[in-house]
């Protein structure tokens, strides 16, 4: 820094620099040092606008040249915003980490090699009282994975992409790793999930998954009081009609 040629200075000696001059010299030295060590092309917050000036996207400040921007990056405002940004990103990463672990587990399951379709048996059943139609499924999983329980769900015909959708049918899916998922096409009727009408059972010893369900009757009032079709109800006896009485009572005499 040139300390000569100042008011009150002697030839051959340096003048006293003020605070503003020292600050300007310090910023100039920082700018030169930053230009030598920092690559602005790798700075994510450095941006050149259409007017030819430079902007800091982190602090939303405007600078006339690269040196001014570099001096700003060494200042308190920029460093404080960097610290806040780092703290916020660390907090977000801690919240995202459990979700990433769950996604990793799902990916591991999806990468398992399928060993084929399981064996199955389907039996048509009918409730002896309500005469409801139903199905009984028995799925065999002899090579099922450890601690894996088979799952099932009903799927609409419009969810699948194998066949043209038909609103008259729905699909019942069974899945258990490492077996391939299997589906059965059934009638698109409402399933009765009342007490004793729908049940599932997994037998870990025989490795068999069982499911039974009944469809709801189209006309629930036709089988009232548990009387199945084919059995006629006894006719009601009208007590006011003497010809429908099972036995005619004789006349009653009153003796004095």
UniProtKB/TrEMBL annotation:
This is Matrin-type domain-containing protein. Belongs to the SF3A2 family. Gene3D superfamilies: 2.60.40.2690, Classic Zinc Finger (3.30.160.60). Residues 1-22 are annotated as: Disordered. It is found in: Nucleus. Its main location: nucleus. One of its GO terms (biological process) is spliceosomal complex assembly. Keywords: Metal-binding, mRNA processing, mRNA splicing, Nucleus, Spliceosome, Zinc, Zinc-finger. Pfam families: SF3A2 (PF16835), zf-met (PF12874).
